[in-house]
Write a structure and sequence with these properties.
Keywords: Pyridoxal phosphate. Pyridoxal 5'-phosphate (PLP)-binding protein, which is involved in PLP homeostasis. Belongs to the pyridoxal phosphate-binding protein YggS/PROSC family. InterPro entries: Ala_racemase_N, PLP-binding_barrel, PyrdxlP_homeostasis. Its cofactor is pyridoxal 5'-phosphate. This protein has 227 residues and is an alpha/beta fold. The protein has a single domain, classed as Alanine racemase (TIM Barrel, Alpha-Beta Barrel). The chain is built from nine helices and eight strands. An eight-stranded parallel sheet has the order 7-6-5-4-3-2-1-8. It is globular and about 50 Å long. The chain binds pyridoxal-5'-phosphate. Pyridoxal-5'-phosphate binds next to strand 8 and helix 9. The site of pyridoxal-5'-phosphate (PLP) has 14 residues, from strand 8 and helix 9.
Length: 227
């Protein structure tokens, strides 16, 4: 096996073990491979290993790779901070946008819908830190943002997304996230996705109910410092 195949298999085994330990079915967990800063050739190799869900955090890189690899039929998840003026370009190629954190972005994604286009899956990104500069809506704004998404005909509210803060045990942060996820479900009962868990904290995320993991370096290998 190549290094990539070995790392992918090792992560999948870790996911299976963590699911078993949590009394969960690993089949209900989607493993998204975050390919940011890696070339399209690596994404092609992942596709050859059976990967279907891939994640990117920068609009330009997402669009370039998604266009180059369009024939592969991958599902592209956008997980980065998104400027409203880039909403249209992201909507054209993404299956899901995990990082919806403000009304203006909801409106921009809604306005970018083409007539007859199927709804775009979106998640409310929640800021688990006290630092407003981090991406995500503050917890006291969750319901209002969820309601705005639920009222947008071309958007499908799927759930919540968050990144565990530095300097706090991820399990504690993900426990809070599970409570926020329930608040979003009080607005939209079908919004059952919890996008949480990266290379370093996927076990804790699974224990707290994550349905979508965003795994980068543990699978792709190291990327440069920008990531
Ligand atoms: C880069 C990134 C990931 C993956 O991080 P790793 O530590 O490489 O697994 C997950 N989520 C977001 C939002 C990211 O930007």
């Amino acid at each position: 096996m190549s290094g990539l195949a070995e790392r992918l298999a090792a992560v999948d085994a870790q996911i299976a073990d963590a699911a078993r330990a949590a009394g969960r079915d690993a089949g209900e967990i989607t493993r998204i491979v975050v390919t940011k800063f890696h070339p399209a050739a690596l994404v092609r190799e992942l596709h050859g290993l059976g990967v279907v869900d891939v994640g990117e955090n920068r609009q330009q890189e997402l669009v370039a790779k998604a266009e180059e690899l369009a024939p592969l039929g991958l599902r592209w998840h956008f997980i980065g901070q998104l400027q409203t003026k880039k909403a249209r370009a992201v909507r054209r190629v993404a299956s899901a946008v995990h990082s919806v954190d403000r009304d203006r972005l909801v409106d921009a994604l809604e306005a970018a819908a083409e007539p007859g286009e199927s709804p775009l899956d979106v998640l409310v990104q929640i800021n688990l830190t006290d630092d407003p500069a981090r991406g995500g809506v503050a917890p006291d704004g969750i319901e209002a943002l969820a309601e705005r998404i639920a009222a947008a005909p071309s958007l499908a509210l799927r759930g919540v997304m968050a990144v565990a803060p530095l300097g706090e045990a991820p399990a504690a942060a993900f426990e809070r996230l599970a409570g926020y996820a329930a608040r979003v479900r009080s607005v939209e009962p079908h919004a059952t996705w919890i996008s949480a868990g990266m290379s370093a904290d996927l076990v804790e995320a699974i224990a707290c109910g994550a349905t979508h993991l965003r795994i980068g370096s543990a699978i792709t290998g190291p990327r440069d410092a920008r990531g």
